[in-house]
Amino acid sequence: MKNFTMVDNDILEADVSDGAVRLYITLSSYCFGDKSICFPSQNTLAAKLKKSVRTIQRYLVELISKGLIRKRRRGSISNEYEIVDKTNKNTVSKLKGFFKEKLKTHKTEAKFGKKASNFNAYDQRNYDYKKLEDMLLGNNRNMSYEDCLK
Fold it and tell me: Are 39 and 65 in contact (CB under 8 A)?
């Protein structure tokens, strides 16, 4: 199956005009796969939706004001449009994957009796603090650092 665009049902319930919904779906069609950013020109969008450029600009303002997309200036020909919902979902899925992997590693290490964290997993040094103090204060000049270790 090809030539389809999946959008979240929330856009259908959003308080925006029908034309803005069509523009949102059109922008989503440019953001295929994991992409959440596209950069079609307003002329391209107007031709695709069979509307004027000024109408496309009104729809964009509507979508931006509702927080459904973000717009950044890209150059003289086109802007960069970011589908906010798709960006959030991608971020959430990446975080879920990260924490799932961390949890899996933690469970595996716990299962095999390994420490879950390597923080402080180095050998600790034991000092004879009286000798160390004497050496640092210069009371015993013949003493070396190794002499202070227990």
Answer: no
